[in-house]
C-alpha cells in the first residue's frame, strides 16, 4: 500500500498526517515559490459503501491477488448477513450488498487496499 495512506495502518494513524501537513507548511515557508497541496478525506462509515464486486476486482487488478486467496476473500465478503432488532421484534435475515462482515480484523486492511490508489497523482499531472 502507498506510504501516503495513513488510515487503517499500524503506526500510521490519521493524526500523523497533521504533522506531515505542518512539516510541508514549514518547508514551504523556506521556498515560497513552490506550491503544496494536501487532500484529506474523512471516510467515516465509508466501508459500508464499498461494493463487493469492485473490491474483488481491485484486489485482482491492482494487487495481483488470485486463485484460492481471491476466492477465499470473495467468499468471506459474500457472507455478510444482518438482522434488525427493534424492541422484541427481530427481522428476517438479509444480505448486505455493500461492505463486509462487521468486527472482522480483515475489513480495515481490505478497505485500505480498496483506497490504495486514491493518493496517486495521474501521470498527466505529475
TrEMBL record:
Gene Ontology MF annotations: RNA-directed DNA polymerase activity
Protein name: Putative RNA-directed DNA polymerase from transposon BS
Keywords: Nucleotidyltransferase, RNA-directed DNA polymerase, Transferase
Amino acid at each position: 500500500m502507498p506510504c501516503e495512506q495513513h488510515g487503517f495502518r499500524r503506526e500510521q494513524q490519521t493524526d500523523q498526517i497533521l504533522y506531515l501537513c505542518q512539516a510541508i507548511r514549514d518547508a514551504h515557508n523556506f521556498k515560497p515559490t513552490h506550491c503544496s497541496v494536501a487532500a484529506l478525506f474523512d471516510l467515516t462509515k465509508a466501508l459500508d459503501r464499498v461494493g463487493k464486486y469492485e473490491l474483488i476486482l481491485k484486489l485482482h487488478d491492482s494487487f495481483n491477488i488470485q486463485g484460492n486467496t481471491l476466492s477465499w476473500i470473495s467468499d468471506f465478503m459474500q457472507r455478510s448477513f444482518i438482522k434488525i432488532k427493534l424492541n422484541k421484534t427481530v427481522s428476517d435475515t438479509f444480505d448486505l450488498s455493500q461492505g463486509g462482515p462487521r468486527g472482522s480484523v480483515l475489513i480495515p486492511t481490505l478497505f485500505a487496499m480498496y483506497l490504495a490508489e486514491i493518493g496517486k497523482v495521474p501521470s498527466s499531472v505529475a
